Each structure stands twice: as C-alpha cells, then as structure tokens.
Amino acid sequence: MREGRKVRAEKEVERVGVRQKEDDRVNMFADPCLSDRMLLIYLFAAACIYGVYALRRKDLFELLERSLGHLPVEKAGDGNKQDVVKEEKEEDPSFASFQQRYKGYGYQGRLEEIRRGFEYLPKNEVYVDHAGSTLSSSSQLQDQLSLVSSSSFGNPHSRSAASLRTAEAIRRARLAVLEHFHARESEYAVVFTSGCTQSIKIVAENFRWTAGRSLFAYTVNNHNSVLGARQYAKNAGCAYYPIPHAQVTDSAAMSSETCKHRLLALRFLSRSRACEVLGGDEVKVDEHGAQKKCYNLFAFPAECNFSGQKQDLRWVRRIQGGALNRSLGCGEGSRWMVLVDAAKYVSTSPLRLDGEDKPDFVAFSFYKMFGYPTGLGALLVKRESAACLEKKTFSGGDGTVLAARADDDTFVLRESLHEKFEDGTVSFLSIMAAELGLRRLQAIGMERIEAHTWSLRDYFASELQMMRHANGREVAKIYGPPPGTPSRSVGSICSFNILQPAGGLLDYSNVEELACLVGISLRTGSFCNPGANKEMLGHTSEDVELFLKEGKVCGDRKCIIGGKATGAVRVSFGYMSTFEDARRILDFVERNFVDMGEEEAA
Question: In sequence order, what are the residues at sequence separation of 6 or more whose Cβ sits closer than 8 angstroms to the Cβ of residue 535?
C-alpha cells in the first residue's frame, strides 16, 4: 500500500513540475502566492523521496495541517517560551515512574530554578546536542554584561589601572579553573587556549620527541584532534600506535605475543623511516654508553564523544608506571606522559586532580561545559612534567618573550608555563566569562549534574532498547554501554541507528531531516571520531576502504554503503535537560519509525 502511495505521489510531482533545483524549491516556499495544494503535494512527495514513512506518521501530518492553516503554527521566537510545567508532569504517569526509579534526577527539586536561565528556548524545540555544545544561561550572560560594564579592562601587558584590573581578573580565573578540578596551584599550571584542539596541538607541537625512540600511543576512540597529533610524531621520526580500547583495559591482552609482534612490526617500519630521514643511528647513547632519557606520549579521551563510554582514569597511573613498556618494547630511560582529552567528560562529570591519578596534561573547552564563551579552552599542565615540552618558537608581544631582536633570531622566552605557551594577548573578556560559568557549575555541583544527566541517558536508552516493531524486531541499535551501566562508566550520550521492520538500516540523515522539521536538534554522522565509529559499528578495514572509494567524507549524506551504516544518530543531554526532552525524542521515534502493523493500518 505504501509503495502505491509513493508511486502516485511521484507521478503527481512530475505532473505539477515541482522537481526543480534546490534554490528554486526554497524560492517556492518564499512565494506567498503558492497554493495550499502545491505546498501539500511538495511536502508529501519530499518525505516519500527521503524514505521516511510519511503517509502514516503523525508528526508530518501535523506539519501539513499547520501549513494549510488547520492547526496553529508555533513559531520560534514568537514569545512562547519553554518552561518546566508541573501540570504536564502530573498528567504523565511515566514521569512518576521515572522519578521513582531515578533519584538523582532534578537536583532535589531545583531543576525549575536552574532552567529559569533558559526561558529563551522556543517552546516547540528540543535541544539534545550538548556533546557538540551545551547552552548558555541567560543569567550567566547578564552577569558577564554587568561585569564588563562595571569598569574598564585593558590589555594586561601594561601597568595602567585598566590593565591591572584585567591581570587580576585573569589571575582569579586561573585559580577558579584549578579550584573546579581540585588541583593545587603548586602542581598544575593553567594555559588558556582557543579550545581543546589547540590545547592538544600545543602538547604535540612542543613535545620533546626523540627521533627513532619516542613513541606516540593513543586509543582508537580518540577525536580527530588527537589523531592529528601523530603527524608531529611522524615528522620527528617517531613511531605511533593506535591501540584498541580493550587492549588498554586488559593488561594481559597488551602483553600478549600477538599484540606485541603486531605493534613491534609497526614500530620497526617507523624506526626504519626515522633512520632514513635522519641518516643516523636509531638509539642515542651518552658518553657512558647508556641510553639517553626519552619521553613517550599516550593520549585517551576521558569520555568517548561517540558512545559516551567513560574510560578508567586509573589508566593514568598504569601508563605513567610503564604498563605499555613490555608490549611496545620500550627501552631504558623511557618515560610515559599522559594526555587526557576531557572535552566531553568535564561537561557533565566531576574531574578531580587531587587524588592518585594525575595526568600530565588535561585538555578541554569551556563552551562544552557552560555554553559561553566560545573560542576558549585550557590546557592543564602538571608542573613536574613541563620538562617534556620545549617551546621552539614564539608569537606575540611581551606576554610571551622577555626579549627579542629584529636584526637576528635572538629571543628569550618567559619562564612561567602559561606565559610561555599563551601566544599573544589572551581573550581576557572571555576568560572573565569563563570564571562566571565555572562558578555556576560549582553552585549546582558536578556530582549532581552527573547524576541528573546519567538518569536521562539511562532512561532514554532503556526505553529505546525496548521499542519493537509489530513483527517483534528491534526499532533501534544502540552503540556503546547498555542501559543500566553505572554513571562511572557512561556519560550523557546515547548513539544509535534506526532499524526497519525487515531488519535493515534506515538512512540516519532521514532521522536528522525529520527531526529538524519537528524542532529537535540532535547530531548525526561519525562525530569527528573515525576510530570509535569503526569500533562501534563493527566496520572492518575493508569496509573503511570501500567507504573511501565510494567518496565518503565527513559531513556528507552517504549514510549507508555496502549495506553498512557509515555513522549514527547521537542524542546527548546537558545539565539543564529534562524528562520532557527525553520523552519528546522517544515519542518522535515511536511516531515516525515504529511499524505498528494491523493496528496502524486500521
């Protein structure tokens, strides 16, 4: 029946001649003279072409009825704001059950108070892309406006009153960052950057790589920002090793002969290339014949931005203690430094640096934590590990260098870590805003934020996993930790793909496009994490080669190649997300992608 409807729709489209270029279609909607029937036919045909079950789906019918004036249109920015309404919760029996099950939800009755800063959200929209960027509170922005308009703030590289105020504000912000992560100023330095990516780049670019000896190892579920760091290792004539997550978790696997031989083969090729480039010996020795000290770098994400899986932070101690030495064949004098990509983790989870697990470097972005400011992040550097970084160049004024000459290449860098690596004038007004954001999170409590967002993720994943088509088949395939996984092992992300009644995959771009039509902001694709995408979706190396041959690139709409998904749908919750947000997405999936069989046909 659905096929017949689709054929009739396509014939109707051909008859009225609406198959035009994309810009023509946009102009059609801008034409006030467009007839109601033409608009109905266009929307109807577009949904069929995209492969969505449009003819029997309630959300699309509501959109069509609104377009014809039968239902009121809820416009973004029309003054209808999204509030937490108690009456709606009381009418929904599933909410009472949810509250009984998830005691950590709602900040002990403070959720309405917290959400007052987000009344600007249009009532008909749901935002669940907090792993991409969380939202900023209007009260936070108002506090920033009040702060910067309270006095004058000048370039901190001066001694004027305005400059001294700025310098003091930056100093307070550094202390606020250390306080947030329970780090001592005597142990860690705060280097402000443009974001997590630049923080990682600073480490890789200035790392003391020893050609032919230093190693760069990383788990395959790292973001592209970490993958880019291997180019610095390669250019320095060093080996790099992508390590499956399971092999780091399982020390026995890391010590196995199979793993050892595979990794050593990779290392041999890289060392051979290093010797070819440098034209020298592989291993350098001092005058006594002993191998000179060399630094190795290991990088992993505290939380995977694809699956939400949290890594065991005890890895830090293990790696620093030489857990990789045997499997990677490291010689004497090797010292492992650990870089943690904490961009996703710190947005909804507490990170403490006052215990036994103390990474050498921690990279993150502030907009992931509290929305504003964008373009600002930080790199936490363990002071005793700073010796493995060597700043070879400089950019900027007297904030970075003590002295420089124009007639030759003489320059003297400043001694303090943050001055040495913060090229140019820092974004001081944004840094002031970051302190306000940190204070906001501290007032709520990161432990409470973790409990709240985990509750939403676990509920959403549980309900999605239980959904079935009329024939009993699953509606969705969830990637990553299953429902019921504790908050210490999974964050606020749930990634999945929709399955058709026959078991085949539905193009994930269809999910995103229909979600956009009904006001749901989510994310699709591989989320700039090709390694996690490969692991979670079960791709082989041959699959990846096929994707590349077929022209698959980041951000395109080639969602299924060779019968396999090239990415997924990602829903991620933030500290201000609600039960209604989770329920709205579940209802969206049920209305549009669940085959009800005889009941639906009736």
Answer: 220, 221, 244, 245
HEC readout, 347-372:
HHCCCCCCCCCCCCEEEEECHHHHCC
CA distance 85 to 578: 11
Residues in the chain, overall count: 602
- Alpha-carbon span 534 to 18, nearest angstrom: 39
The pLDDT tens digits of the residues spanning 117-158 come to 999 999 889 999 999 999 999 999 999 999 999 999 999 988
pTM, entire model: 0.80
Residue 569's beta-bridge partner residues?
496, 524
Run of H or E including 409: none
Q: What is the full DSSP assignment across 419-485? A: HHH--SS--HHHHHHHHHHHHHHHHH-HHHHHHHHHHHHHHHHHHHHH-B-TTS-BSEEEESSPTT-
Would you call 554 a catalytic residue per the annotation? no
Cα gap 198→188, rounded to integer Å: 18
Q: Which residue has the tokens 């904490």?
A: 342
**How open is the CA angle 421-414-298, to the nearest 5 degrees?**
35
Cα-Cα-Cα-Cα torsion 186, 191, 195, 196, nearest 10 degrees, comes to: -50
Q: Per-residue pLDDT for 411 more than 80?
A: no
Catalytic residue among 48, 238, 304, 528: 528
Residue-wise pLDDT for 331-389, tens only, equals 777 899 999 999 999 999 999 999 999 999 999 999 999 999 999 999 999 999 999 99
pLDDT, tens digit, for every residue of 381-395? 999 999 999 987 766
User: Looking up tokens 């902001």, which residue turns up?
Assistant: 521
What confidence tens digit (pLDDT) does each residue in 169-187 have?
A: 999 999 999 999 999 999 9
Q: Rounded to an integer, what is the distance from CA 568 to the centroid of its chain?
A: 14
Residue 508: closest CA among 468, 470, 456, 561: 561
